[in-house]
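During the no-cost extension, the postdoctoral fellow (Dr. R.K.) reprocessed legacy sequence entries with the updated structure-token encoder. One reprocessed record is reproduced below for audit purposes.
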Amino acid sequence: MSSLTLALDASTYSGTVALLCGADELAACEVPMRNPGRESLLPAIADLMQRSGTAIGDVERIACGSGPGSFTGLRIAASIGKALALGARASEGQRIPFYGVSSLLLVVAGNEIARRPGRYVAVLNALRGEVFTAAFEVGEQLDIVEVDPTSVQPRDDIDTYATRFGARLVGPEHADHFAPHARGVARLHAMLDDAMPADLESWEPNYGRAAEAQVRWEKAHGRPLRSR
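Re-encoded structure tokens follow.
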């Protein structure tokens, strides 16, 4: 029987949640992440589980968008995902296996282009005149393979970058407005089947770059900010 997976991503200003059974999407939703005074992602998960008649203890794995992207959104999703993985079966002395999935990969896997063989460069805003990019190829059998890993590129250079791989640019700011979506984990279920779960104590999202506050601090003090 296929694994029941709860997937979530909040790498942009829209958070997405999906309940999946193997390659099948059972339910999905999208919520705004910039909602003053109200956290929307956890209530969305609760509502999705209620509507699908599923208890969190029934979930066999949790997949969380690992970034890069919005610092705040990634932290919220990571905190919720890890807390559910740790706590949902705590009374039984168990944890739900937890996996991180590239949010750039979810740009491709979570949208209709996942059904169109070809090469794609997924793009997310990195601010400061830069973008996060990664190149992927959708094969004839609709498998998705990474062609070039996550990097930070000057916004003005992304057309040249995509041309280098013979790829089409896709992302929230491009023609089709494809954003990362948690439902894309359904297309990656075989990859997760072969992967090892993340270590919950040490796993952190890939923020892709230093936070703006850190950059300003280091500039003002003339030295790197030490991490704990």
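The chain has a mean pLDDT of 91. Residues 71-87 form the longest helix (17 residues). The remaining legacy entries will be reprocessed before the final report is submitted.
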